[in-house]
Amino acid sequence: xxxxxxxxxKELASLFGSPTAYLTLMLVALVTALIFFDHLRLYNQILxxxxxxxxxxxxxxxxxxxxxxxxxxxxxVMETLGLTLIGAVxxxxxxxxxxxxxxxxxxxxxxxxxxxxxxxxxKFAVAFLFVTAMMxxxxxxxxxxxxxxxxxxxxxxxxxxxxxxxxxGVASIGLACSAFTSSxxxxxVSGWAVAFVLWDFSWLQPFVGESAARTLELLSLHPRYGSxxxxxxxxxxxxxxxxxxxVSMALARFSFDLRRVGS
Amino acid sequence: xRELAWIGCVAILFGLLSFYATDHLGVFGAVNLAGGGxxxxxxxxxAARLMRRVAGPxxxxxxxxxxxxxxxxxxxxxxxxxxxxxxxxxxxxxFERRYELSPALAELLHEVPGLRILHFYDPADPRVRRTxxxxxxxxxxxxxxxxxxxxxxxxxxxxxxxxxxxxTIVLQLGDDYEVxxxxxxxxxxxxxxxxxxxxxxxxxxxxxxxxxxPERETAQGFGGLAAALATEGYELRSLxxxxxxxxxxxxxxxxxxxxxxxxxxxxxxxxxxxxxxxxALIALLEPGVDSGLETLLGEWGISAPDELVIDPAAxxxxxxxPEGVCPLAYNYETHAITRGLDRNRMTFFCxxxxxxxxxxxxxxxxxxxxxxxxxxxxxxxxxRLTRPAPxxxxxxxxxxxxxxxxxxxxxxxxTRIFAVGDSDFASNRYLRSLYNLDLIMNGVHxxxxxxxxxxxxxxxxxxxxxxxxxxxxxxxxxxxxxxVPELLLLAGGTLWLRQRAA
Amino acid sequence: xxxxSAGTRTARGIEVVAERLTRRFGPHVAVDSLDLVIPANTTxxxxxxxxxGKTTFIRMVTGFLLPSSGRVRVGGLSPVEQRRAVCERTGxxxxxxxxxxELRVEGFLRFAGGARGLAGKxxxxxxxxxxxxxxxxxxxxxxIGNLSKGYQQRVSLAQAFLHDPPLLIVxxxxxxxxPVQQDEVQTLLAGLAGTRTVLLCTHDLGEARRLSTRxxxxxxxxxxxxxxxxxxxxxxxxxxxxxxxxxxx
Lengths: 263, 502, 249
Fold this sequence. Notes:
Chain A is an all-alpha fold. In chain A, 80% of the residues lie in helices and 1% in strands. Chain A is globular and about 70 Å long. Chain B is an alpha/beta fold.
């Protein structure tokens, strides 16, 4: 446990001691804030057009159902953020294992008391922590808007949870890809490729039967995190992301065995 | 092998990007995906062949253990996910608990076994995903069968049910069906109620003296109330007061919606006899009118002085009425009519006449079911309805009864009366506001002794449609939205400069 | 710089024995049926040209790579089955590029000690001792990436010493260093002689002569010569051992 703790501290120091981490956090927070503000401004404009005295005011049925804070602002922002995470997170995770292999410091790690399993757990834990921090800074602005609007924080908490789990899922994929290469570029590209494959299998639907399509939908990232954006926190969706992390960890652990065997 | 894997990843990535960019798998995307998949399969095959060449028992054992670990992780992950799925554990964290079915709807669904839910939608419709989640909850609660149709691909089915727009639900029970064009929980509730075809009773509507018109759909009309009564199984019959000699035997209750003139002695006597033989009365009054109902109610202990309730806690009315004339009530006595209503479930009135209650007989039960705030007071100055005026000095404040109920057991029959000092709360303009609909409908159910039908109804309108003013949004953007990234950049840059110097 | 010869003089080195040790990478045989005994408490030089198999052999000793066939024993333990126990007895000094350039010296040493199971007071004392021994006190708060190569190599030595291992594996310790830095590092290593087993992997013959008492020469994965360093490298043409066409038993 001491060894694991030492590695966790080292990983945190490496990550948060690097300006890249702050740059990534800053970019994600800024992009979220600007996209959110843009949607909010558009929503207000639409609402005031419908609610003008010519159209009947707020308390009549002239405003379409889909013109509401969630459908017009939050949902599109969260969809965009979900895709942003697929783009951004593999850039974070690409160096986790690949850089160690490229530098040769993986040999240093493996020749200590640390087991490959502990190395994998530490890398994954720190990456998950970073993703959570990234979501937290991104949510400061939307949360403030919701608080001012008096809409209740629980729905936003569900959205935050969903996006964080989604980010953790993408991070798991990125880390597993990083474990099999010494090139950060290959790690990032393969992370993107796998994440996009798992995002949504709608592109396969014309070629497979109904039961296969249903099974593929169960494996997809997008529907799983999508229900959180609706305010539904379902245990099976939480378990999906846990399973994704577990399998990714097992794959990353296996990469150490492959390294020992070599070819 | 590595080159093939690289080619495979890049090809798959660009194949998918082309699909998501265009929403269509064209030649470019298909070729990239197929080629990329093939390259990855080849890379894996080469890797497997290389692995086979690895000699030594240790290597094979290590590889086998590693693969077993992956298989165990996969098995465990799938098992946990399936177990969680079958447990159906989920919570609704929406502001208005949008996906938790209201107890009223959940109970109602149990009374309609064999329900089918047909969902017609256009896949591009943004409302579809929310409706799908709602349908999942309905199926979970009732065991109903659900079928989804792309509305473009089943024109015959759509025409059969009269479906004209996307995101329409058809609720089918046997040969009967109800079409719900805006499938929010409230509309589904009412549709299921209609499918039940329950007969709740016959209500006689007083007409002829300027009462509220149940056929008018304008803001001042009462078409909404009539529709809600019909939905919940009541048959409405007009009773013209001018020719009313005797209330017909089949009438279970009389509904009087603020007559503007005297209903006449003959009608009054007819009502008197109706109540004496155990009939029910639902009276919606207005200040400034002496219709004869006030006298009748007074005989039953519910006197309605011609005064106006001013409740300073209410503020300005929704239609910019002067402050206090439109009470927002959140104080309720414990009574079947107000079951479930509390400080968070308010009712809204405009221009209210107060009640004073005094039991005619000892065993009578009189209750002020809805009360104003304790800061309210009364005035006979009806000009305050349209013109703001300062509060007079030394006015007597206290809870004012806005709605009252009376239950009387006389000579082996039971008479019930539900009276409200305002009729606007049940007009089209305000019926769906807050919990007004629940108050009037539960009052009717109680008056007709149909207590099992008393419920808090799910709402029809989505409540999250008010704006966040742009100025507020800008303040937040500067104060928080931009400040956080700025602080992060400052922290990162400072750290970098320090590291360079260290 | 503190006197590197200070510290325990008790001989506690362990023996390393390779028996028909072989490692293949696809069709290429990196180490071919190697039989070698590295006696305890000796500084043993492992010599050979680039691609001779020295690093591959070291990686099999630490358990980082699995042998394709044959076996190796480190103090009687198998790096294949008892990798962690072997690592607890081994310190590994690598090339300077294999450090974490973003960490500070003290932080890195604390991590390295913690990763070897040290904690609390023991860790603090070990780090302090190592910094004193290798003259790192003045640069304790410096970022490793900003240090000179000489200091980085001292950091690499220090991290290998934290847990006072009986076997020290040193791979190309003076690669890329200037002559003064080379001399400093070699002096440090010389101070360890006799107290533990040192496996020195180098293709610098002068370094091998200065530091090792016994040596072995690998070429194309095979052992071509083994014996006392003076005997192996004392002839008229010591480079003959490294050329492909010549071999001496």
